[in-house]
Amino acid sequence: MTTLAQWLTTETEDAALRGVIGSMAAASAELAGVLRQAPIAGQTGLAGATNVQGEAQKALDVISNDIVLRHLKADNAVAVLISEELDEALTLSETGKYIVATDPLDGSSNLDVNVTVGTIFSILPSAGGLLQKGRAQLAAGYVAYGPAASLVLRIAGDVAVFTLDPAGAWIVTATAAKVPEASGEFAINTARERFWDEATTGYVRDSVAGETGPAGKRYNMRWVGSMVADIHRILMRGGIFLYPLDSETVSKGGRLRLLYEANPMSWLVEGAGGLSTTGHQSILDVEPTGIHQRVPVILGSTEEVRRVEKWYARG
Ligand SMILES: O=P(O)(O)OC[C@H]1O[C@](O)(COP(=O)(O)O)[C@@H](O)[C@@H]1O
Ligand SMILES: [Mg+2]
Ligand SMILES: [Mg+2]
């Protein structure tokens, strides 16, 4: 059995980077324990506050952020923390070499129904400043708190998957995860159809048409409503995830956040052989203009993302 610490030593010689990843993994292992007993502790409800995005915070959004913050503070290598739950970037260490951007609890609307939630993180060099393209990431990962807790991680090479054992250690369970090139599954919130642009409408219409339609095959639709869970399924067995720009989100630039949702997920999906796009460019090439910036997100199996890109290219 290979542990996370053993895998990290084969992936990077940078001990400080290994330390930061280890801190995020330790924070997530602690959070897995908190989530397991959250209904008993009465923690699945609202916190009574709103975050900078104007969204009602759940008690566990705040608890998750506190856990990540405590672990990263103890690690002097992190200069700045950017979090969905913090209005401003928070300086942690004047000498730190890294920026961590995190969605400490993704999919928190699923908490009260005991459906998979997650933690997403992105690690960047602090020398590059707060607003760096996704391409500048040094590492990224997420944890899916499902029937098993899975940590999915990529530094610069392959994407590895770890499973949390009962003693709290992360054990390697896959070393080179690959997103299958082709798939017959798409994930989109179809209740938003009336807001969609022509490209999204066209792609979904072609897919739903099945074997006799332009795509020439049958599709299934899946939507968990936790990005982590939807992307984990796509990483494991293929598919495409779409949260495109639509007429309702256009003034905000999209729904999902660039620095701590779209960029780390794109780093992982592209590292596993898949593609990411806003419809017009790879998400990893988007120039950030703000730490809580939103962006259209389309990612997954190459063939499917290319089909969507073709629709966008039609103009
Ligand atoms: O409510 P919708 O439109 O289904 O959106 C679901 C999306 O919103 C999110 O829950 C946003 O993340 P947070 O829970 O961290 O705010 C994604 O995980 C998910 O893909
Ligand atoms: Mg999220
Ligand atoms: Mg969140």
UniProtKB/TrEMBL annotation:
Protein's GO biological process: fructose 1,6-bisphosphate metabolic process; fructose 6-phosphate metabolic process; fructose metabolic process; gluconeogenesis; sucrose biosynthetic process
Source domain of life: Bacteria
GO molecular function: fructose 1,6-bisphosphate 1-phosphatase activity; magnesium ion binding
Residues that bind substrate: D106, G107, S108, S109, N189
Positions of Mg(2+) 1 binding: E84, D103, L105
Record localization: Cytoplasm
Hydrolase found in the keyword field: yes
Gene Ontology terms: cellular component: cytosol
Domain Fructose-1-6-bisphosphatase class 1 C-terminal: 179-312
Catalytic activity: beta-D-fructose 1,6-bisphosphate + H2O = beta-D-fructose 6-phosphate + phosphate
Free-text cofactor note: Binds 2 magnesium ions per subunit.
Keyword Hydrolase included in the entry's annotation: yes
Database matches in InterPro entries: FBPase_C_dom, FBPase_class-1, FBPase_N, FBPtase, Fructose_bisphosphatase_AS
UniProt keywords, alphabetically: Carbohydrate metabolism, Cytoplasm, Hydrolase, Magnesium, Metal-binding
E.C. number(s) listed in UniProt: 3.1.3.11
PROSITE patterns, per database record: FBPASE
Domain called Fructose-1-6-bisphosphatase class I N-terminal: residue spans: 14-173
Needed co-factor(s): Mg(2+)
Pathway recorded for this protein: Carbohydrate biosynthesis; Calvin cycle
Family (UniProt): Belongs to the FBPase class 1 family.
HAMAP family membership: FBPase_class1
Summary of subunit composition and partner proteins: Homotetramer.
Protein name per UniProt: Fructose-1,6-bisphosphatase class 1
Native source organism of the sequence: Devosia crocina
